[in-house]
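Before relying on records like the one below, remember that each one covers exactly one chain. Contacts with other chains, cofactors or solvent are not represented anywhere in the record.
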Amino acid sequence: MAETTAAGSQPTTPAPSLKPPRRSFKSFFWGSLVGALILIGLYTMFMLWWSYSEGERAGVLQKFSRRGWICKTYEGEVAQYVVGGVAPQIWYFSVRDAAVAEQLHKTVGQQVRMHYEEHRGLPTTCFGETDYFVDRFEIIGATEPVRPPSGRSVEPAAAPAPAQPAAPPPTQP
């Protein structure tokens, strides 16, 4: 039954419902992709800001290099000796600060104490190949490494000549 208006005798039809236009698959795809990238970026920023643990480790810095195919990172390893005569435990670490990395290049072969922060769950190795990031260090028992003079090789010292037997003391009558 059609409704009539008070002003006239013409019936009114209900207003057509306005449906939102249907989104295309392309706009849904790009919107989802942008949303996922924003979430990954926020997750990465949080994991770099929040550290799982922090502490110090000491040992001999035996290797330090800058490596990587696309993302160049500073990576190193410290040999931690528990007791003499036992194989050392190797601890791998990364460095994000270029100033710290430059100083570490100069201390290879020396005893060091390193302060680190552990950041677990980073989505890429572009920040470092390990979870351990060294932010400062100190040299323990700082000694300069022995280097030969330039242009000359170091020859081992000649063996000392055998000692002559001592003459017997003069006898007194």
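The chain has two helices and seven strands.
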